[in-house]
Amino acid sequence: MKKHLFLILGMVCSLVVFSGCNDDDDDILVQDVPQIVLSGLQAKFPNVTYAEWEKKGGYYVAEFWQEGMQTDAWINEKGEWCMTELDLGTNLTLLPEAVQTAFQSSQYATWRVDDLDKYERPDRTFYLIEVETGGQADRDLYYAPDGTLIKDEVDKENNDITPTTQF
After folding, report:
1. Same-domain check for residues 126 and 70
2. How does pLDDT run across 28-64, given as a tens digit for each residue?
3. Mean pLDDT, to the nearest integer, of 3-25?
4. Has residue 104 been placed in a domain?
5. Are 107 and 148 within one domain?
6. Can you give the CATH number for the domain in which 39 is found?
7. What angle (nearest 5°) sits at the alpha carbon of residue 125, between those of residues 113 and 98?
8. Is 51 a member of any domain?
9. What is the residue-averaged pLDDT of the chain?
10. Beta-bridge partners for 150
11. What is the three-class DSSP state of 140?
12. Angle value at C-alpha 55, between 37 and 16, nearest 5 degrees
C-alpha cells in the first residue's frame, strides 16, 4: 500500500512539474490564424502545405520546412509578408561566397560556428553567424550578401530578430 501511495504521489508531482515546463505559450492553432494571414503566407510560399503557428508581437510566425531547411515566415495582421528566417545549421557553404570569404578572413575564423541564419526582408537580406570559443563571450556577426560586416556584437540570450530589429 505504501509503495502504491509513493508511486501515485510521484506521478502527481511529475505531472505538476512537467505541466509548468511548456515554453510554447505563444503557439496557436491554424484555425485561429486569420484567413488574410494564411493567404499572405500562401502568396509568398505557395508550396507550403503545413505550418506550425505562433504569435510574436504583432506578427503571426509560420514555421515550416522548405528545401530541407527550417523556415520561419513573419506575416503581419494585414497579411503582408515582413520577414523570413532560414536556419542554415552550421554549414558555411550555404552562405554566399562573399560572406564565406569575409568570415574566413576575419578574427573569428578559428572560432567554432554555432549557428547560421539567413534573414530576408522586403528591403534587405542579411546573414547571422553565431560563433563561440573557450574563454571568450559568444559573438553574433551580421553580414550583408556582399560580405560586408554590418554588425559584430556579444551574443545575448533571447535576442530574437524581428522585422523591426534595426542595425
Report:
1. no
2. 999 999 999 999 999 999 999 999 999 998 999 999 9
3. 39
4. yes
5. yes
6. 3.10.450.360
7. 55
8. yes
9. 87
10. none
11. strand
12. 140
- Under DSSP, is residue 44 helix (H, G, I), strand (E, B) or coil? helix
The span from the CA of 164 to the CA of 166, in Å, is 6
| Inter-CA distances, 80 with 39, 53, 126, 163, Å | 9, 16, 20, 12
Of 83, 29, 36, 38, the residue nearest 57 (C-alpha) = 83
Q: Which residue in this structure is represented by grid cell 542579411?
A: 126
DSSP secondary structure letter of residue 39: H
For 61-78, how does the pLDDT look when each residue is reduced to its tens digit (9 = 90+)?
999 999 899 999 999 999
77 and 105 both lie in a single domain: no
Q: Which domain holds residue 113?
A: 90-155
Find the range with the poorest average confidence among 5-19, 23-37, 105-119: 5-19
Under 8 Å between Cβ of 106 and 141: yes
Domains identified in the chain, total number? 2
Residue 110: the pLDDT is 97
95 and 77 share one domain = no
**Burial 81-108, CB ≥16 within 10 A → b, else e:** bbbbbbebeeeeeebbeebbebbeebeb
Whole-model pTM? 0.83
Q: Which residue carries 515550416 as its cell?
A: 64
Considering the domain architecture, whether residues 67 and 119 belong to the same structural domain is answered as: no
- Check residue 158 and give its pLDDT: 73
